[in-house]
Write a structure and sequence with these properties.
- By secondary structure, this protein is α/β, with parallel strands linked by helices.
- Helices cover 50% and strands 14% of the residues.
- The protein has 13 helices and ten strands.
- The strands form two sheets. Strands 5-4-6-3-7-8-9-10 form an eight-stranded mixed β-sheet, with helices on both faces. It has a two-stranded antiparallel sheet with strand order 1-2.
- A hairpin with a 7-residue loop joins strand 9 and strand 10.
- Helix 6 crosses helix 13.
- The longest helix has 18 residues.
- The structure holds guanosine-5'-diphosphate and magnesium ion.
- Magnesium ion binds next to helix 7.
Length: 329
């Protein structure tokens, strides 16, 4: 018994797994570079090979960072730092500027690159997934179950999104695919009661991890937050340290809205981490920098598609290289 931590660069044993791993980051690069090939050229082509650099280059860089949704604060701190280094003649040419940019960006994200740790002394370790409708909670649960199973964890799911008709069925479908039990009640059942049942079942069956799916929309925001708080309370009745992880799932394509969601949910239910989904559908991966600067919570995973393997532990350097389109392959 101890702490199990998701490895950032999971040991990939088979060739197929290695291809899959490489494919994920290559696809991310393709997605994040979509703006560059459409509206602008890439960061790399702006800087690499340039013999001399000036204010103008920095201005162009600033515009591109803002367009990628890096956000005003993070962009300003990057540009300020680069300006200082340029004035102190520390950056000889475009290549040096590019390397400094890459370093700065990694430095902003690095504090958020803290993988999810499953405390194995908890039985079960309770993970609560929250976020607005359509953010990707249920899908991310399906993907997460598979990762946990690879690590030989026994998982149970709680269908505490009792508000939407299809929500329970959707979770059950993921449950069948992964061959895990889903504790559910009828539609409109009290989510707190579902979680209570699920936690009792998880204890009885000695499950390692219980993942709680929750609703994303009720009649009002206040109702939603009250419901989530209640789920927390119910879980802590059976285990006063539960839930052990409260993960906010945000759609990476919604831009600065993701920040508001993070701040609101954090205030209501005390988040411990974030999952950013749908990075396959957006060229605006810069939102992670805004999250890092303004929210500062660990980014546990990123999602890149609807498939069961489309979830990865967040890695700052790999993410920055995908965004900057560094030619390394
Ligand atoms: N392209 C893409 N679609 C996703 C991703 N994650 C979830 N989805 C899709 O987004 C929609 C909403 O996801 P769902 O898990 O039901 O969101 P929930 O309401 O938060 O539970 C579904 O059609 C998912 O297949 C992702 O990373 N990429
Ligand atoms: Mg759902």
């Amino acid at each position: 018994m101890g702490i199990f931590s998701f490895k950032k660069n999971k040991d990939t044993s088979t060739e197929e797994e290695m291809d899959q791993e490489k494919g994920f980051w290559t696809r991310l690069k393709g997605s994040l570079s979509r703006t560059r090939h459409g509206l602008t050229d890439g960061f790399a082509s702006l800087l690499l090979g340039k013999k001399s650099i000036d204010e103008e280059v920095l201005e162009e860089l600033e515009t591109r960072l803002l367009m990628a949704d890096v956000g005003i604060e993070a962009t300003q701190s990057i540009i300020e730092n680069l300006t200082n280094r340029m004035q102190r003649k520390q950056l000889a040419d475009g290549n040096a500027l590019f390397a400094a940019l890459r370093e700065d960006m990694i430095q902003i994200l690095q504090p958020c690159a803290q993988p999810l740790e499953i405390d194995e002394t908890k039985s079960p370790f309770v993970i609560m997934m929250v976020g607005i409708n359509g953010a990707g909670k249920t899908t991310s649960i399906g993907k997460l179950v598979k990762r946990l199973q690879i690590e030989n964890k026994r998982v149970i799911l709680a269908a505490a999104d009792t508000f939407r008709a299809a929500a329970v069925e959707q979770l059950q479908t993921w449950g069948r695919r992964n061959n895990v039990d889903v504790v559910a009640q009828q539609r409109n059942a009290d989510p707190g009661s579902v979680v209570y049942d699920a936690l009792v079942a998880a204890k009885a069956r000695s499950a390692d991890v219980l993942i709680v799916d929750t609703a994303g929309r009720l009649h009002t925001q206040t109702n939603l937050m009250a419901e989530l708080k209640k789920i927390r309370r119910v879980a802590s009745k059976l285990d006063d340290s539960a839930p052990h992880e409260v993960l906010l799932v945000v759609d990476g394509g919604v831009g600065q809205n993701a920040l508001n969601q993070a701040l609101q949910f954090h205030e209501a239910v005390n988040l411990t981490g974030i999952v950013v989904t749908k990075l396959d559908g957006t060229a605006k991966g810069g939102i992670l920098f805004a999250i890092a600067e303004k929210v500062g919570l660990p980014i546990r995973f990123i999602g890149m598609g609807e498939g069961i393997d489309d979830l990865r532990v967040f890695d700052a350097a790999q993410f920055v290289d995908a965004l900057l389109d560094t030619e390394d392959d």
